Amino acid sequence: MLNECQVKVIYALSPQARGKIERPYGWLQDRVVRTCARENVHTIDHARRILMKELNRYNNRQVHSTTGEIPALRFNRALKERKSLFREFMVPPPYQSSKDIFCLKAERVVNLYRKISFNNLELKVSGVPIRGTVQLRIVPDRQSGLVEIRFWYQNRLVGIQKVKNEDLNLVHF
Predict the structure, then answer these.
(1) What is the chain's percent helix, strand, coil content, to nearest 5?
(2) What is the largest CA-CA distance in the chain?
(3) pLDDT one-digit tens code per residue, 39-59
């Protein structure tokens, strides 16, 4: 998914880089746990409210010890000055929808009957030659109980089918 969005992953390999990433989370976790204990929290909703309150305070009011700035103000200034690596998400060509990017993926070969088999379910595929390799982009939807399967052949969307979650027999859907 990251490759398709042309995002390069940079790993924090040095102890200094890992510490820089982990330090705020450790600080926030300590603060939230202590606040929950002090306020005698017994429900997830109450703990969630405390977490959101602490996040808001950290991002919008607290002066960061290293930068000497409030994180939200520093971030907004970087965006305004175009010094941020954050970019607006756009679906990269040839894909047509975010469903083509954020999905489960599989490849199948079209048989002599112009069908593919996926988890013992046969699906008809048109627009793909016999023995052609088709890429499946599988998008489960828990609310509707359906799975949308988007068929791609040679960087071209050749079909979309919807099947029931239980018919496709995917784990956890």
Answers:
(1) 35, 20, 45
(2) 68
(3) 999 999 999 999 999 999 989
Please enumerate in sequence order all residues whose Cβ is within 8 A of that of 75, keeping only pairs 6 or more positions apart, or say none. Answer: 84
Query: Could you tell me which residues come within 8 angstroms of residue 125 by beta carbon, excluding any fewer than 6 positions away?
Result: 110, 114, 115, 116, 134, 151, 158, 159
Location of structure tokens 């009011």: 61
The structure's pTM equals 0.66
Contact 159/108 with Cβ under 8 angstroms?
no
Q: How far apart are CA 29 and CA 104, in angstroms?
A: 33
Instruction: Give yes or no for a contact between 95 and 101, defined as CB atoms under 8 angstroms apart.
Output: yes
Task: Note the pLDDT tens digit of each residue in 119-155.
Answer: 889 999 998 999 999 999 999 988 898 999 999 999 9
